Amino acid sequence: MLTLDAVHKNFGGIKATRDVSLDFPKGSLSAIIGPNGAGKTTLFNLISAQIAPSEGAITLDGASIVGRSRTEIVRAGVVRAFQVASLFPTLTAMQAMTAARVSYLGKSFGMWRPFDATLPPERAMEILALLDLGHAANTQVSALSHGDQKLLDIGLALAMEPRVLLLDEPTAGLGPQERWSMIEQIKEIWRALGLTIVFIEHDMDIVFATAQQIHVLVSGAVLASGTPDQVRGDQRVIDAYLGTALDEEKEAAQ
């Protein structure tokens, strides 16, 4: 469904990604892992048209998406939720969702008149219910917990009717129990909507318990790809990343 073929991104003399070739089949749930500076966020920036590749091809259902605007990428079905949520703090959760739906449906409101929050909210409420945020529909966004704000940010992405959902560190900043709750919500979204989901994550317990396929980036290049068992047993991955990552997690838990 989503394919990267020999993608390079250079920033001057710095090679942020090097010859990256990856395939994310329709309906798959994949994780991208690697040390800081490995090129994970750059990869998401390339897919979502935040930046353009220096070389290589990125295709969706066989059609190139390189050179398209960010709006066109979203319309094609590739939507991203960011590590740091960018929300509407003075709106309620329902109003924020409705605003996202209005934007996606092309019924954007003029700057000279207020947003019409009375537009049909059915789909917005469906998404809030899927995220277990129905209880917060009338709560101001700024009053939501950090975890609920991150869920709402994913909800805003879902309002764009994605076929491919990119999640940039969805559990960042959450406590241990909140992380597992978040990833269970993501798995429920995946099961309920049949999306292709790609997520960046540093918690290796979550990665190995969740992803069907794991892609390991090191120094901008793909070091390994495979099932959790294949990646866990790959000595190159252990030496380059997993050994250090697991040690850091153990220290954090102590």
From TrEMBL:
The keyword ATP-binding applies. One of its GO terms (biological process) is L-valine import across plasma membrane. Pfam families: ABC_tran (PF00005), BCA_ABC_TP_C (PF12399). Residues 2-244 form the ABC transporter domain. Keywords: ATP-binding, Nucleotide-binding, Transport. GO terms for molecular function: ATP binding; ATP hydrolysis activity; L-isoleucine transmembrane transporter activity; L-phenylalanine transmembrane transporter activity; L-valine transmembrane transporter activity. It comes from the Bacteria. One of its GO terms (cellular component) is plasma membrane. The keyword Nucleotide-binding applies. CDD domains: ABC_Mj1267_LivG_branched. This is ABC transporter ATP-binding protein. It comes from Actibacterium mucosum KCTC 23349. The lineage of its organism: Bacteria, Pseudomonadati, Pseudomonadota, Alphaproteobacteria, Rhodobacterales.
